[in-house]
């Protein structure tokens, strides 16, 4: 494994940091979150046209840049530093890879170039916890993907095509996405399985679609409730769709990529929270001397620094594993299923710790809702609620690695 970054990778990081520094300060973030879209649409278009951010990891034949998970993770680290509210995670990390891997050629050519250009945003709507669906906190080949279970989202084939019924909660960017990728049960009790369906909210058959933006802990990650009542849909990859094993494997790989990017975003957020705290304690005085000169404060900041650097190494390794690793090394699906959840768990813990310390060390001003430290603390808490919790991320990674008996782990995390 070569840990050195190329000039192109360093340039991606530098350019993105400079642009976000100018356009995405704490006040800009708060204002963008409270728009109907939940993000600054002008900035998103600029990121698409100037940097090609939405298509960074998409193939050039579909309008992408042709980079890989490492470049996407580096971009995620910079967007995490600024807490950029944008459809990057939902559109480019969760949906675009699934379309690229499982979609028909017509679907790829129809949707991926528009996603890469920043013209189309997308969201993944699932009725189960997304951490389980992406194989981050549990096996994704169980009840969620079939078994004739009632509830969730059901698909039936009518004379005029497929129709969906059901509800999905906590859909990231679901209120504004121009395309929904919906996981739905089909096949009845005996042959039940799950397929992914494409739903266009502005299409003719989407009259039964209701999307409600929810109040979320972290406003930079807007969520929505998606209700489907006889909504027209098209299976991803055609009527036959992928086999259950193909779908499970695709979701595992998407989960590995998502975990790497999320871990990188948490590292970027933690790094900024730590550096801003260091700057503050250098100038804030108590008892006639800077707060940062006290040994106890130095120890707390040093502990945070070690946590951030360790999490950064884990996030980079997870991105490398998501890209396939190297022959004979721990890349591939086994590496993805272990490295991704472990990196995410470590990064979320680091962000949670550093953000909490930032609030404490900023003193009275740090406890006001107006201070930016709360934005970072909310990001840590919300990401763990959506994709964790941390102990389940670690337990599932340990189970995949074969470290402990599955029954022992189930009792430990219950």
From TrEMBL:
Keyword tags: FAD, Flavoprotein, Oxidoreductase
Keyword ATP-binding: no
Gene3D superfamilies listed in its UniProt record: Acyl-CoA dehydrogenase/oxidase, N-terminal domain, Butyryl-CoA Dehydrogenase, subunit A, domain 2, Butyryl-CoA Dehydrogenase, subunit A, domain 3
InterPro entries: Acyl-CoA_Oxase/DH_mid-dom_sf, AcylCo_DH-like_C, AcylCo_DH/oxidase_C, AcylCoA_DH/ox_N, AcylCoA_DH/ox_N_sf, AcylCoA_DH/oxidase_NM_dom_sf
Cofactor: FAD
Domain of life: Bacteria
Residue ranges occupied by any Acyl-CoA dehydrogenase/oxidase C-terminal domain in the UniProt entry: 260-400
Domain Acyl-CoA dehydrogenase/oxidase N-terminal: 6-119
Pfam family, one: Acyl-CoA_dh_1
UniProt similarity note: Belongs to the acyl-CoA dehydrogenase family.
Protein's name according to its UniProt entry: Acyl-CoA/acyl-ACP dehydrogenase
Species for this entry: Streptantibioticus ferralitis
Organism classification: Bacteria, Bacillati, Actinomycetota, Actinomycetes, Kitasatosporales
